[in-house]
Amino acid sequence: MAADWRSFKPVLIPDIPNLDDIDVYIKNGGYEALKKVLSDDWTTKSVIEEVKAANIRGRGGAGFNAGLKWSFMPEPDGGPRYLACNGDESEPGTFKDRMLFEYNPHLFIEGSLIAAYAMQCSTIYVYIRGEYIDWIKMMDSALNQAYEKGFIGENILGSGFSVNFYTHPGAGAYICGEETSMLESLEGKRGYPRVKPPFPAQKGLWGRPTTINNIETLANVPLVINNGADWFKNIGAENHPGPILYGISGHVNQPGVYELPSGVPVLDLIDEVAGGVKNGKKLKAVIPGGSSTPVLRADQLDGVSMDSNSLREAGSMLGTAGLVVIDEDTDMIDLLWRIAHFYHHESCGQCTPCRDGTGWLEKILLKIKNGEGEVKDLDLLLDLTTQMEGRTICALADAAAWPVRHTINRFRDEFEARCKKSVHAIA
Amino acid sequence: MKYEFTEDELKQIEVIKARYPEARPATLPVLWIAQNKFGHVEPDVQKLVARTLGLPEAHVHGVAEFYTQYYKKEQGKFVLDVCTCLSCQICGGYDILHYLEDKLGIKHGETTKDKMFTIQQVECLGACGYAPMMQITNGVYVNHLTREKVDKVIHGLKNGEMPEFEPMEMRKVKPQEN
């Protein structure tokens, strides 16, 4: 790691009062990055190159290089092109983008405008889950301020570049965080994920080139333009650089969103950052990046840090960096059943392995939870996860399968102890 | 029952439609306008939305059915959405849900006889660091729930007082002493 995380000063949610007000934001250097890229010193290509070099890996969970994603957009043909910002934020354990809507909306707006310029998009939509109605209103008022100052609209700052920017409300559907489902929802339909290819860069909204980025990902863009790709790359873990909004929840004394460099050791986040496990209990496990990322036992956490490589080696993923801390008193069967219930509830029903599989996962886990299960049911569950994974249009089935597989494998004794003794009947 | 939009609402809908290249994308926002006005989007309201946007009724119905936040029938005056998902589950979300159920004498999914309260058990609302929590009628988030706080909120709602907006907590790492 480049520098000790303890000396890091927040840049995404810096400690500046009323930063959500555009005048305060401008006073603190806001919209300078947009002015820069719209000047003659920068071209659309050089913006993409700089962002690609910074290696901002998508903060929505997939971790794909944002600049590289932008470069997949075809050459402009005079027709409309879209940037769709993903503020659906529905993965259990994840609550960090809301922090940007509330405390630093203009950083996200500025980043989106730079992205739209680089890709020559004509319209930006920010899709925000319907439950975040108070934060949709905050974004609407921040967007109005930016329109009034001439940062959005026709011929922005006399550059000849024009773009519109609107919020679009969801209405309660986890699946709409999946990027093609989000496009369907933006088009006013049921949120059924699309078959890929064609990818959104070729055929996105209304069949036109579209790029989808996470809110936090876009908020990093002005920082890269102002400070350079090298500055960004020197923050945190080498393979996954930059600041991260860690959402820490569960059994800790100080839960909440913390901005720190990537690559902070998991145990430091729990003990030092979030004030340790609540009520002096022992740590049992951690879900590192939202409910779909495999749970890690406390004894698997030595030396593991919050970057994609370290977590992969440990047997999990960074996901959305939403950590759920689990204490020694937690019933893992109960926990896993509730996760399975979530994915069953949220499956859109398009693909059979997911629609039926998530239902069976929940049903069998409920049976085990109630003490009615047998050890062979655990193997049935594991078999089911392999029947689901990779066999559907989108990754919801995988997201449902991973926690089941890994929680059973990593807490097998606890699950077996809950099962009835197997009865071997002789045929 | 006959449902209509006012002239002002129709103007607002035109503004929303202008954000998109066609009318259909306005389905979700206009369903929201309808629900905020009528309190639900039962089939006759869905027909109004379809008529207003010039879209097939089946389309609007399909959308309304897909998204959980749209109330397909009349609800209590206050809908209490209690999160019991993951972080809320392990931080006492079910205790809060059951406490509310006992307090109001209904189960989740039901409405009190006086049509005042509906309780719903909901999936993750993205407030995991403030667990356990609930949302009131698709509006304000009420965080860090305890039985005492629930009592206070219910008492307030009975007197027509909506809880105040609670800002997200700005967390800072405490400097280490050495």
Describe the model.
- The complex is a heterodimer of chains A (427) and B (178).
- Chain A has 427 residues and is an alpha/beta fold.
- Chain A folds into three domains: 226 residues, NADH-ubiquinone oxidoreductase 51kDa subunit (Rossmann fold), CATH 3.40.50.11540; 92 residues, Ubiquitin-like (UB roll) (Roll), CATH 3.10.20; 95 residues, Up-down Bundle (de novo design (two linked rop proteins)), CATH 1.20.1440.
- Chain A contains 18 helices and nine strands.
- A five-stranded mixed sheet of chain A has the order 6-5-9-7-8, with helices on both faces. Chain A has a four-stranded parallel sheet with strand order 3-2-1-4, sandwiched between helices.
- In chain A, β2, α7 and β3 form a beta-alpha-beta unit.
- The radius of gyration of chain A is 22 Å and the shape is globular.
- The mean pLDDT of chain A is 96.
- With 178 residues, chain B is α+β, with helices and mostly antiparallel strands.
- Chain B folds into two domains: 60 residues, Arc Repressor Mutant, subunit A (Orthogonal Bundle), CATH 1.10.10; 81 residues, Glutaredoxin.
- Helix content of chain B is 40%, strand content 10%.
- In chain B, α2 crosses α3 and α3 packs across α4.
- Chain B starts with 6 loop residues before the first helix and ends in a 20-residue tail after the last helix.
- The mean pLDDT of chain B is 96.
- At the A-B interface, α5, β3, β5, β6 and β9 of A face α2, α4 and α5 of B.
